[in-house]
Amino acid sequence: MPLIGDMAPEFNAQTTNGPIHFPNDYAGKWIIFFSHPSDFTPVCTSEFIRFQELLSQFKEMNTDLVALSIGAIPSHLAWIHAISEMDGGANITFPIIADMDANIAHAYGMIHDSASDTHAVRAVFIIDPRGIIRTILYYPAVLGRNFTEIMRIVVALQTADAFGVAIPADWVPGEHVLISAPQTMREMDRQQHTKARGIDSRAWFLSYKPLSSEVIYERLTKKNKGNKKQK
Fold first, then answer.
1. Would you state the CATH architecture of domain 11-145?
2. DSSP conformational letter for 143
3. Taking CA atoms, which of 33, 34, 76, 188 is between 20 and 30 Å from 25?
4. Of 225 and 217, more confident
5. Among the listed residues 68, 50, 154, the one whose alpha carbon sits nearest the alpha carbon of residue 104
């Protein structure tokens, strides 16, 4: 079972959009790789509609979506067709993996025997452009995912990487971020007594600084556009 900081396990699979080699096909991009228990179920349907609604926002953040369940391609296709035909539905365009033998689900720890030994739980793996797992989330079958939080995590991780900062509790873009904790006595003394403009130093180990949402999105979207041009 992979953990945060591990390389995402590689696999080949068939999806509703054709074959993929994961995560290699998404090199240079962030990935939200998520599992759902079953097609044609109410919570999963609500989640897929919401994922599709947010797809363009994820794309702006250089982030692709890849779904998985222990089901067959015909079932996935029939389900997404039904979603497209229903009131308030959506045309699902991101790929859904058919993991019939559950090998991928087991490799990623998506099968929790105490919950079900035949269905995946609601797992979310956020993987960075280097193929490293940066976040893992699990939800029970009765609870739909919090998409505001998933988007917040993607933006927060990219912000931390781009600006070399840490992210405080309950942060949303535009709020103060944290200066990384000092690693030497000299850094500790400087951080504790800093009078730099805008720095809110409350202790040698806790200092905040402003970072506007405009600056964040300008940097991240500009960087992401640059990555697309290089391809």
1. 3-Layer(aba) Sandwich (3.40)
2. S
3. 76
4. 217
5. 68
Q: Which DSSP category does 118 fall into?
A: S
Q: Angle at Cα 1 formed by Cα 114 and Cα 9, nearest 5°? A: 135
| Joined tokens for residue 144 | 């739909």
Residue where the block lists tokens 């999963």: 44
Q: Which amino acid is at 64?
A: D
Whole-angstrom Cα Rg for the chain:
20
pLDDT band with cut points at 50, 70 and 90 for residue 226: low
* Catalytically active residues, by annotation: 44
CB-based contacts of 200, cutoff 8 Å, min separation 6: 176, 207, 208, 209
Top CATH class, 157-230: alpha beta
193/69: higher pLDDT: 69
Every domain range in the chain assigned CATH 3.40.30.10? 11-145
- Bridge partners (DSSP) of residue 20 are 13
